[in-house]
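User: ok so my PI wants both of these folded by tonight, can you help

Assistant: No problem, let's get them done. Here's the first:
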Amino acid sequence: MRNLFIAFLFSLLFCHFNYSQIGMGEWRMHIASKAIDVASGNGIVFAALETGLLEYDIEANETSVWNDVNSLSDINVSCIYFDEYSQSFFLAYKNGNIDRIKDNLVTNIPAIKLAEMQGDKNVYSFSSKGNLVYACTGFGIVVINSDNNEIKDSYYPTNSNEKVQSIAFVQDSIFALSPSKLYKSSLSNSALADPNQWKVDVRVPIQTTNYYQDLQSKANELYLVKKNSAYGFDSVFHITNSGLVQKAEFGFSLEILDFKIYESKSLLTCYDGVVILDNDIAYSGSNSLFDNHYIYPQNSILLDGDIYEADNVYGLIKFSIHGNKQISSIGPPKNNFFALGGNRETIGVAGGIIHKTGVAGSSAGAYLFKDEEWKLFDKFNQNAWTNREVFDVSSISINPLNENEIAFGTFSPTPISISYDASTISEVYDPNNAPFVGDIDDKVCVSDIKYDSKGNLWVLNGFSLNPLKVLTKDKVWKEFSCGSSVSNKFSGKISIDKNDNKWFAVLDEGLIGYNDGGTIDDVSDDKYIQLNTGENTGALPSKNVSAIAVDLDNEIWIGTPEGFAILYNSESAFDGVAGEYNAQRIKIDFEGNVEYLLGETSITDIEVDGGNRKWIATANAGIFLLSPDGLEIIESFTKENSPLISNNIVDLQFNTKTGELFIITDIGLVSYRTNSSEGDSKYEDVIVFPNPVKPEFNGVITIQGIKYDSDVKFTDIAGNLVFQTTSNGGTATWNGKNLKGEKVTAGTYLIWTASNTEKGRKVGKVVILN
């Protein structure tokens, strides 16, 4: 269809909303601009994104994003609809939850989500008549009274054997379309909850191979979309007294996603364009290009002569005779999140996925986030990947000596790729130019990668004889033997300690430590150890290690599906005898019983912040923040007590400069601005915010960019001590109160810092307005 579409000529315009860094203790959700539905009303266009909403105010030409963190009641959006009677938007989620949005107020209608029933609760579409809004679901029709937001009734035309795709009204009749049949009944029938009160409309043939998708009414006439199992053979039909009459016959194929009828025109949203139809449902025109690129529509609407298209790649696009433009949120390029990597200000996200026994074939690629901008790396925008098989990008590492050097690891025939300018892949490695051995399809499993302090790239190559490999800073590949017990097995994560020792996980074999003696070229002085669950060979909680972290004291924190442990003597372990390099578990006294801290909680990741505190990610209990020694649980973040969107945490990564913690969950990416950051002994970039502090501000005043573990004092201009604290890494906070807990008066306050052993220095000031 693309080649036969009439394309409009236009220029690309961007409308950005303010997506600036968040304040201390605040959360934000990172949503891709991938739009799945669109609706308009009251001068507002809402594009439903996969995990939120993009709002576009037409007159103000402004956009904003709604999500589970800042406003909405749920995640995983399914559709959106504007109801003229109530002047409200109805937003549905795949679990049946519904939000009503009116005058910027969200009212949750959770009845379907909370209903104790089996089956598909997804809401596929909405329709309305009078004060009633009809939600078409996987089990039937749910009727909502828009006057009071209550469920009035539920109808079961298919007896819950099929989903209801859409409904339409003709005079006193209500029609419900399932994939195979059209049902009808009378609106005046008070027993529509009874499936027997619905009759199959014999004008519409029952489908067994093909299926029906959409139903629309116009001037008491019904039209439906019939999907053909063969690609490109979909059709629009007029339902007449004698049966179906095909409409919208074109000289090109149709793969229809949505159908809407307006007073003077109709729209067909197709897989690769938007088709405009006239009053007779005949071809009038089409859009298939934007900025000389193909569009990927999911739905579209007609508003005041303009077309607003929900696009799978470009978000929200407006097509107009006055000029076309992209109206999009600033977010990650895609909603695929698997693993994180980073170095100071740059966050890397691996979008692919790696399995223990095989590939997933994900082409999501990877993304970089720096200075509030996202950058995509995938096979469509990287020439080095164009003619290669590159999928399942599962790890990212950034060279600490050069933040523009980014390495990507995959489970594919192209296992390692490197960018030297943080923009373009310029070097790739595979079995032809590196010591990799692929399977019968040439796929190589790289489970994790990490640069060391000298700029060498260490690679963990699963299912190989020697899983530990390195690409030296001089571009020479080497591999190392770590014993037969770890050969040809699936590998996991790798971490490098402050002495450049390598620590990595192997499935069912515990944790491996490797010491190269500081000489990569000379293996004669190399040593390795293996920690497992044996009483004298590691004493790990489990033989499967899922998280490895090196803290500021060079202690190795080891997470497993059955709790965590700590290797305190990491350096001496390589020369230790059996039992001398066991990991230790923290014990606490709980109600008279001695227990392991966090018990057998499944640990998925461990990150260390600038204050040496430990952030523990779990598979089902959210995130725990532990004190530097791990003896105290400082905070616990769950979906129930915070804006965290899920308790199933996949991976964590710090922006060490700002202290923002990026969190991959099983349903999306969020971040949280912690009160800790990396210390800076040179005080080159000290920031105090907010400054000035306005009367309505109720948060904490933050000073960032100071030396690790500093004493911080706040004084008035006369030098009188007002408040003092100790920094978490390079960050300290003040609640604006004096030592007595009283709110300080308006004025200018000086900030002094010093380490515990050095003389103090003035590093900033803050103005408080009361």
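One down. Here's the second:
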Amino acid sequence: MNPKRGRRSADAESKLLLVTGRERYIGEGLNFADMVHAYPIVSPAAHGLIRGIDVSRTQAVPGVRRVLLAGDIPGKNGIGASRRDEEPLLAFNEVLYVGQPVGIVLADTSETARYAAHLAEIDIEILEPIFGIREAVAAGSLYRPPLEIHTGDLEKAFAEADFVLEGTLESGAQEHLYLETQRALAIPKSGGSLLIHSATQGVTDVQDAVSNVLGLSNHSVEVDLMRVGGAFGGKERGGTMWAAVAALGTWATGLPCRIELDRKDDLAWTGKRHPFLTDYRAAFSKEGRILALDVELNANGGAFEDFTIPIVERAMLGVDGPYSIRNTRIIGRGCKTHLPSNTAFRGFGAPQASFVIESIMDRAARTLGKDLAEIQRINFYRDGEETPYGQRVYEAFSGEILDRALPKYKELLAEAEAFNAVNHHKKRGVGLLPVKYGIAFTATFLNQGNALIWVYMDGSISLSHGGVEMGQGLFRKVARIVARTLGVREERIKCETTNTLRIGSVASTAASSGTDINGYAAYLAAKDIRAELRKAASQMLHEEVGLAPTPEYIEFEDDYCWDKRLADEKRTFEALASFAYFNRYNLGAQSHFATPGLSYDMEAGKGTPFAYFSLGEAVVMAEVDLLTGGYEMKSAHIVHEGGEILDEAIDRGQITGGFLQGVGLCTMEDLRFDGQGRPMADSLSTYKVPAFSDLPEDYSVDLYSSRNEHASIFGSKGIGEPPLLYGLAAYFAVKHALEAFGGGAVESRLSNPATPEAVALEAERIRKTTKTGKGTA
């Protein structure tokens, strides 16, 4: 049946289920007559030695099947990222954060398991914890020696500079707040193997970690998922622990085992975006050109390394921003503390780095009394210039993008100036923030993807690849690539689940590279099928109309094929697929793609870690109430350079969502821990995140479609992470509004995040400073 005229396609049906709330997520709808539910017994202390665990009250609860401790693990007790033995699944002699699992309760219901887990008594000898970055650095509590990047003659540049800026900057943590909490379902299979439905971005990591814990080969662990209900990096490694818990429950009982964290526990026990503390010196010429940058980036990684070192590395590679800096010393430290292990988060160190360099540029413009746009422009990379780590920058469009943003920027500056002239207790400020974001995994081996495609005899198409759909539109983009390559409509294509038996050894869906690597792999597979179908079509037309079989003359478009020599003789894709099957042509293809030209030496701090750069500029105007500290965005305009855009609707959605998430990071999401290492906000009643109403009415996205030799499939560029950085413009808009309150005489020391409380305190400081006539801060 022709999908154009017949029944609704599988993907169309899925979209209908999504918008009506009837689509299923991890393990939903899979219920069994006999199954167990798991919940962890966790440490109540941030740091201490385990002297004993009493689970007698837990085991006495009706409905509890078993309680598992570290000694019950049949394989190796290790799920670490950098190396498996660095992080245990279950703590056995020392606890390193509040919420660290030390045991697992298996019960008939999730409520019983959760209740019984809280009855366990852990005898802990309390040790002194470390929570802050300064404490960790002073104590030498680092995962590894500091990383360094050097270029040029730093001290000579500082000695010859017209002025030098110095300072310390802090940026806070951020909760992922995915809609679907951490969960997994493990199901036993024949031969001692098992199937795991896991809320994860990294099916290969789950497969390997579970294999390690159970003492199985990878081929005995099948990981399968259709979609994840939000992730933002929090499920790149975050889902691995809970998949291993479910798998251990199935091993222990022989029954399906499910675990689902409630929201409160998910917020309390899981890692966040890394807080950073940065010390810097920056040298400038009197014209505003940055001559040297000496910066130390320190990240709070929590109890285990997780992705801290790659995130620090990524921040080091992004602290130059879109600016050419010839003399640098960039140091990065991953600090070990007694908090849940901080992990991947959309941006992966780049937002923290962008905040640093843009704060420096903002101060330079203020010091010189020049417009920020002028300072940005004279420092932008030009084609062929090298980054501090030695990668050449090509297709450097930052100046062109700034030109597109300037009219709105100037309009808002004039509007803010007019408003401020007649308002005393309310002020407006304008933030202008450029973006240069490198796309690829800095760990070169991760830049690979696999795809498998089958064309069936009725013309329908099955598409499998290693990417995880988590609301970012990956499946639609990859299906669009395949449809374009085969000359068919997208409705023909069914995107299959992400499954480690069909697609093995794949990278996590992260680093804004999901479409790049999975889409390219799918394109290569579709290209192989297209070549086979060309041969089949030429043979079919030879038999039916007598044309000499010449495959290179065959064209495909809009569900039809034809020979260019006789274009009126078109055949449907269904007819071609049927002919190909009955004449024994190969209708399937598997392909592998590895991003070319990448290499990076972390120890040397040199190489080409990125396939290309995504560029953009954001302009935001905020209005601040200086009495209450409250504020709102009045206008936001984003110019984003996305290469040849594959799907405009998806990209606009990603830009808007990323922008708001960035606004939350720097203006309202304030994650604090008490003196015992427990989060002070563990629910949505106490943790503030942006809502759709926080988007200003005056909001626009200018998609700058550019043709790039260095971009990915069909000239497209990754879209997931770069837009988050645009949200930082909101912070600078609020900061500039505060400085307008002081008549421009006082530089704001506004903290990040710029919560209403922080804004009110800073307004009071500026008021007092101005009244005492100091005039500077």
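The chain is about 30% helix and 25% strand. The chain has a mean pLDDT of 95. Good luck tonight!
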